[in-house]
Design goal:
Elements: H1 4-29, H2 33-52, E1 61-63, H3 67-74, H4 77-86, E2 89-90, E3 94-96, H5 104-118, H6 130-189
Antiparallel strand pairs: 1-3, 2-3
Helix pairs in contact: 1-2, 1-4, 1-6, 2-5
Length: about 200
Amino acid sequence: MASAATTAGITDTTRVSETLEVCLTLMKEEGDGDTFSNAVETLFKIFSNAYNNPKEEKYRRLKKSNKTFHDKVWQYDGAQQFMLAVGCIEMEDSVFLPSDVDFSSALQILQQYHRSQSHPATENHSGMSPEQKAKSQHLEKERQKHLEQMRRMKEEKKRISDQIKADRKEIDTRETKASRARNITKGANIKRFEDIGVDLNRGGG
């Protein structure tokens, strides 16, 4: 009989696996087949390098500005959600893969998807077992939920970005007006020779 701790561990692992599968499904919907295959392959290389070289910092810190990483992986919301769900940490200019995170589950799922892309099988929903159908329905519900969450996140990010731009524009406008006002004030305080009693037309001596 399995202990409660073992059962909880299996449940958590299953939940993580389902979340990762949903993220990959979202990623697949964001591009064509080649785009998805390249993203899966790149993610597999990223996690393989980190898994096989736990002490190498260069494999654990990925710069968002890196063209290959950005174009093949980070520009896709599904890929971002996948990496964060695995345990990666997003920083301002990079993504960090902690050394205490086990990437074996991610590697296993990525490998499965990579194989399925290389050797696609024809889907046969009518031949699904009740358990497979239930899992498929569950994944679809999770996918829809994640899509809605991502849509809200995008809207919130856009709102914050637009607000920052508006605030910056308002500050720039104020600074420009203040600078002009200071220049006008300085000009008004300049005294002419006549103001201090000096007659430039009068000869000296």
